[in-house]
Every structure is written in C-alpha cells, then in structure tokens.
C-alpha cells in the first residue's frame, strides 16, 4: 500500500480554491451572522435584550473555547477566566489608553462608527473600533502566551493536579490585577508618567477599570462568535482534533500511535486561551467595568458548567448551554423584561414545536432534539413567572439561588449523563441522513465475534 | 549496523525490588515472525512496554533499523517505525472506526495550527490523503462498512482487528502484537494465523508476537523466545524450544512432560 | 527580630490549621483517589457551625458574651464535628459513591458541583430566620452576611518576651505568645497524633491502608470497603471541622461561605497536601507547616525589603502568589510531592 506522503500531492487543491473555501466563505458567513444579529435580530429585541445578546455571545465564546481543553483534550482547566481577564485588561488598556494618547478622548462617541453612534463622522468603522480589534488581537496573543505557560505543567501533571494549577493561575492573575495602579483619566498625565511608574500598569487596581469605550455591539460580538465556532469546529474535524480527542480517550494508546501528547496538550491550551482572550477583549468593550474578580473562579465555574452541561466535546452543545443558561440567569435576575415579551416567547415555542412535528412527520430524524429546544423559551418564561411570584411573595430574589441550581445541575448531569447532554455529538448531526446501520447494542456473543474475526484471511 | 531490523539487547527494568524483566535479548530480521512466550506474569507485556518506550529501560539497548531508540519517547519510537496493539484492547472508544485509523495516519504528516484554522492547500491535501488511506486500510480489514460506527460499539473480534488495522496505519517497520488471539475460539485462531502471515507479506514488515496459545505460536513463528520470571530461559526455532526442559519446567512445573 | 518571631508564631498557628485541612484532602485522595474539592467547604461549614453553635448556646443559656465559660469551647467543637461529619457522610453516599467506577474527570466535576452547592446553600438568606416577638432566639447566624464569632477563649498572652530595640528613640518591641495560638497548635497536634495512631496502630487503620493500597484485593480479603471509605471521608471532615473551629477562634470575623477567602484557604491547604505528597499523612502535616511558613515569610520579607525598594505596598497582598509559585515549582521538580511516591499507570 502506498505511503501517506505519496498520496498527498494528488489531493492538493489550488491556492484560489482553498482561499475561497478556507477564508472567504467563512469570513462572509461571520459577517453575515454579525449583520443578521445587528440589523435583523437587534431591532426586534430592543435595548435590554440587545445587551443580553452581547453577553450571551461572550458566554458562547467562552464555552466553545474552554471546550477545546476540557471537552476535546480531556484536560481539566478551571482557570479559564484568567485568560479571559488577561484579554479583557489588555484589550481595554490598548483601546482606552490608545485613544487617550492619540485623541485625548476615550469616549465611544468620538471614534465609533454609525453602528455605535449615529452622529459619527466615519462611514464604516471608527478608528476607535479598529483600536479595539488591535487590542483584541494583542490580548489574544498575550493570553495565548500565558496558555503556553500554564499548558507546560500539564505535561507532567495528571488531571486533578492540573485543575489545581489552573485554578491557582486564575487566582494569581486576580491578585496581580488588584495590585495595579489607579486608572489615569487624563492624556497629559499619562504622557508625563515615567517608564518606571508604568512597570506596574495603571489598570485600576481593586476599584476596577472603567470608562472603556463601548464598541462591542451585536455585530462585533456575533461576528467573533462565528469566528470562534468556525475555528473550534475546524480543529475538531482535523488531524489536530483527532489527536486531542485521542489524548482524552487514552493517553497511552495515543502515544503508541505517534501522538506527541505534550505538543497537543499545550496546543489546546494556547488556542483555548487565545479565543478566551478575544472574548475578554470584547467583554471589556461591552459597557462593563472590569474588575479583578473577572479572573476569579466564579466565572471559570460558569464556563465549566456550560461545557459540562452542553457536552464535553460538542461545540454546538456547549454553545446552546451557554445561551440557555445565560438567558435563564437573566430570567431569574429581573423577570420583568421576560414577562413583557411573553407573546414572543410563546410564539417561539410554538414555531419550534411545529418544526419538530414536521421533522417527525417527514424524516423521523432530529425531532426530539428540536422539541427539546422548544422547551427552552417556554422554560425561560416559566422561570420568569416563578421568579416574579416568588419575589413578590417572599421578597427573596431567586437570582441568589442561581448557583445552587447550577451546582445541583452539575451533580445530576454527572450522575446521569457523564459526557454531558450531547457528548461528542454536534446538534446538526441529529438531523443528517440516517447512518448506514445501528451497531448491536447487546454485548457481542461468541458467535458474533467468530463471524466477524476470520474474514480477513479470505481476502486476496 | 545490525543485520536485524529490531535488535533488542539485554534490556531490563525493576519496579522496586521486583525484577519485572531482566537481560532480555532478541533479534528480529526483516520480514521475520518472532514469538515471545511465557507463563502468566513472566514479564512479556513489560518487555513490550520497554521496547515501545512506555517504560524506560534501565539497562541495554533497543535499536530499530540500525538506530538506537531506547532513549526516545513512545511517539518518537512510533515514528521511527514501531507499532503495537494492546493486550486489553485500547481503542479510542468515543471516536468512529474511521477516526481511529485516521488518527494513526497522523504521524506521517505535519500538522500546524495555522493550517488547521485556515485550511491551507497543504492541510486540505493531507486531510484528503489521510482519509483515502484510512478507508483503504479499513477495506483491507473488511471494516469499511463500519467506518462511521463508534469504535466502542463494535463486537469484540472487530475491535481486535481494528486495533491491528490502526497499528498498521502508522506505516510501521515492526509490528508488536500483544496476545492477538486472546478470547478467540480455535477456528478463529486458525484464521488469525493466516491473517498474521498475510499482514507480514502484504505490508512487508517484521512481527513480534506475544501469545499464550502454543499451537498458534508454534504454527506461525520462525523463532521463539521464552520468558519466565522476567528472564529469558530459552530461544530458538519452535521445535527446539518445545523440547527444551527448562521451558517444560516453566510451563508444567516438572521436566519431561509433553507440551 | 521581634516582628520576625511574632510572624513565625502566627505561621506555626496557621500552619497547624493548614495541616489539619490537608490531612482530610490527603486521606480522601489516598483512599478514594480523587481530589475532594468540597473539603474546603466542609472546613467553612465547621467555622460557621462553630459560630452558630456558640451564639445559640450563649443566647439560650444567657451566658456572659464577653467572658463565656471555658466549657463552651469543647461543646462548640463537638457540635461542629458532628454537623460536618454528618454532612460529609451524606455527600459521600449521595454524590460520590454512585460514581466510584466512573472516570476521574466525572468525579472531579461532581466534587466541584458539591463544593459550589455547599458554598451557595450556606449563603442562602433562608437560614437567617426572622426575629420573633422581639426575641432573638430564632436567629441562626449563618448565611449571606459576614458575622463575628464570640471569643470563647480569654484574650491573654501566655508569654511575652521583650526585645530592646537598641535605639532609645524606638520603644522596645515584645514577642507575644497568645493563648489562642498555643491552643490551636496543641489541639492540632493532639488531633494529628490521634490520626497517626488511628492509621498506623489500629485495625481500622490497617483496613484503611489496605483499601488505599488496592481496593479490590482489600475487598477480597474481607475488608468492608464501602464502610472504610465512608469512615475515612467522615474522619477527614471531622478534622476539617476542628480546623474550622480553630480558625474561627483565631480570626473571629467570618466571611460569607462563598467568599473567595475561604476558597483560597482551602486551596492553600490543598497545596500543602500536594507539596507534602498527596496520599501521605506525614507529608500533609509537613506541607501544612511549610506552606504557612512560606506564605508568612514571603509576606514579611517582601514588605520589609522589596516594597521600600519598589515604592509599593503589596507584600501582604501577594501572599497567595508565593504559595502557588511554590506549588508549581514543587510539581515541576517532584510531581509526586516531597514525601510522595510516584505512581505508574498500568498498561
């Protein structure tokens, strides 16, 4: 049989072909997703839900990026928020202090595009927004460097030790961020600072980093969600992804098959950290005050719950869990906006249920999963209602119970479905054509093994 | 430069006080079929682990095609041209049958993160080549119809064959089979013997085999090494080994008994 | 010199607490082979139960709040031990036992789930029952806001060694050895020697070691594995409860159960167990003292020498950084810890 390297040249596509399929199409898709969210979904949602949509997008990015380490590679990282915070602070630093140095003014009003402010002078994107993208890329690079540093010990540590190291990493980032200097609000003051003073950067310390220009709208966030999902999916279905999955399945067999597990574990960490860094940079520009506690374990645990619930290894599963849990948290926090939109949620439930019924009638494939998705808007509505009545009756805010519910969910999922709701399966795989045949579910009998084993000998 | 493809000289390891494997020497020529036998707990699997780099040998040397490999990590040894199966099947259970074999094609390619993320022409060509080759390999082992099934869901016999198929997909020069006939009935074992010979001829490689089943080993091996309590007690052609009193004692407890 | 010795004394007291908590981590790891993330929450539960119990007893029996009788301390300690042991028993039976045959990752995630659950249940507002008829009897101080533990021990210093400063303008410093510190150290020592005796000198201890060495063989030899595992788990929790009680004595201002300070404390104790060699009882004790020493010496040296040099004031704030740096160094140099033995995966 011919060796692999001999087979490669015959399959080589032209540069134009691969540029088109590899870069142009996904870029257009990502822009399409962003545009649809900004101009299609955004106006329907209204201001409140638009801001929720931005946070949901960031949660999806975090869930999908963490899934590369926890889901694909089976390495347990609980310091993901550390990378997120690094990206956030670097992105914020670049665009806030950059704007302060260049324009003496860091408000989004001055240098955003029409998408952000209607009276902006620039016609497509403001210079400030490009500064945000530059900051996001720098943040991703620095986070990736830290991912490399954290990934290195994972070569020598088994799963549970690694968990501790990553948790410690997140905590160290948090503590160090607390020690940074107070924020500078004046360009002139910033220019006068000596290099020695900037060794400890003015990132706001324990009081937080505020007044970051608010550029991250639905367009930018969901564009990057699409990019992150594309990247994660490409990794999953490539040689690299199979190598990562083989590490998760059986390290010894993976090594015997020639997988350099060291290299791939670090690679998973680097990629996940970079994507979390991008998510962080966008979060910094979405109107939040950055706090050192953004690097803390609370946020890391949120990410883990998305991944574990959605499925260790399922990109779409983790993304769906991130969407559902983020909205449910909102439903618990303040039920009014949800109750105001009860008609929309009911219509959504009805529409998805009808789709499920059609799928059931036509192809008998994927209708269960669709029905499951129909339950989500309904349960959000019910949660909102319950939360409202409960708060009215007792004066207790159900949002306080969010973590209790999360914790119970985590335990129950582990007891009932150890690989998460979707396992390795992507949601769309439930809709594809039926597989050739179902494998026998009963344990193989001796006769089956006998029938299967010797056939090789008969082939030429 | 050794005349043997796989040249193992006096390797050994002890865990604490337990001498799991000592002074093991064996040589396999190109296209050779070599057996490693011994009673339970004789250190056969430990020997495999030493040769394939799972454990670091404390003495001696292992060379493959004239190159020392005993100081290398397992994945480097695999790349040098050694592949193995496991006594207790170690497939990647959650992956599909095809992906198990595609993973094994992995080490003959180069995989960059940039290529993966942006799908460069090189990456695309390689992925397609891997797929083509993996499907061909599955076809050889009659597993092509099951390509999309989860490896864990295969019946036992197919899992054993998939493991051999996966090992061969790494394009090895030497194949190490750890008890391939375990759990098979006599007629399956006969078929397996044919398969092993055929693999040797078709893929043009040397095979080192651990097996409990005397009949199978005597039938197909050209040369046999016998281990007992971690040390080699006999080596030679099947007939010689069979008549060696030390071997008979190791297996049956007294000399002179017939195997 | 005086401030150095004073910090050393604190380090020894805190080190005994770390050692007590680390023992629980190490015992559970030795037998059940997973990191019990919820262990630090048992410790928190111990501290808060001590607070609740002492406040309740003081109010019910109308004791003197400033100088409660000395018998109160052991009663409260016992109370904390019983509550924590009970909770740990339930956790082991309901959450961990069904997962005994599962992959490590699943058990780890479950442990994190249990940890989150304990933290957040402890923080629920429902626990602070409303005052009835103007009487504070029903108020159970447990939950969403920080509280203060009544001082159960008189605040006296046993030994006070004066250190003349040499410079007449600076008043002479003195090193104080407080009753609390001595109490913590002595109780921790008693408990640790008790555990040592239990593990190495009793039949039950032999069973524990057998289960730790090889669960299957132990069960074939007639060791009641499930019961031994539960017992180990509960023993670890009881030690953590004691640590929680002692902590509340030393630092009476208790934060909410989900506060990050608790997680950090638990983490540092875990680091102690890992540094000493997880699964090794003596290693946990050694690690506990070592970690506390490094933490406090790091704080002392950094604020005394580096802070003035850099014009900053962050020596004390970086205390967690010292500990985690030590952890990473130890894991990289000797992954099995100082006294641990390396494990080999069976192929």
Overview of the structural elements:
By secondary structure, chain A is mostly helical. Chain A has 18 helices and no strands. In chain A, helix 12 (297-310) packs across helix 13 (315-333). Residues 436-460 of chain A have low confidence and may be disordered. Chain B has helices at 44-51, 74-80, 97-105, 113-118, 121-140, 156-168, 186-203, 214-220, 238-243, 245-252, and strands at residues 6-15, 18-28, 33-37, 59-64, 67-68, 82-84, 174-178, 206-210, 223-228, 231-236. Chain B contains ten helices and ten strands. The longest helix of chain C is centred in the N-terminal third of the chain and has 31 residues, at 2-32. Chain C has 347 residues and is mainly alpha-helical. Chain C has a single domain, classed as ABC transporter involved in vitamin B12 uptake, BtuC, CATH 1.10.3470. Classes of the chains: A mainly alpha (460), B alpha/beta (259), C mainly alpha (347). Chains in contact: A-B, A-C, B-C. Chains A and B meet through helix 1, helix 2, helix 8, helix 9 and helix 10 of A and helix 2, helix 3, helix 4, helix 5 and helix 6 of B.
Keyphrases for this structure?
heterotrimer, B: alpha/beta, Rossmann fold, 6-stranded mixed β-sheet, C: 347 residues, mainly alpha, 11 helices
Instruction: Spell out the CATH superfamily of the domain at 6-81 and 172-252 in chain B.
Output: P-loop containing nucleotide triphosphate hydrolases
Amount of helix of chain B: 25-40%
**H/E element sequence of chain A:** HHHHHHHHHHHHHHHHHH
What fraction of the residues of chain B are assigned to beta strands by DSSP?
Answer: 15-25%
The proportion of residues forming helix of chain A, as a percent range, comes to 55-70%
> Between the first and last Cα atoms of chain A, what is the distance in angstroms?
13 Å
Q: Which secondary-structure class do the elements of chain A indicate?
A: mainly alpha
Strand element count of chain B:
10
Task: Report mean pLDDT of chain B, rounded to a whole number.
Answer: 89
From the N-terminal CA to the C-terminal CA of chain B, the straight-line distance is 38 Å
Using DSSP, what is the number of strands of chain A? 0
Tally of DSSP helical segments of chain B = 10
Low-confidence stretches of chain B: none
Number of alpha- plus pi-helical segments of chain A = 18
In spatial order, strands of the major sheet of chain B run 6-7-8-3-9-10
Rg of chain B, alpha carbons = 19 Å
Q: Which architecture of the domain at 6-81 and 172-252 in chain B per CATH?
A: 3-Layer(aba) Sandwich
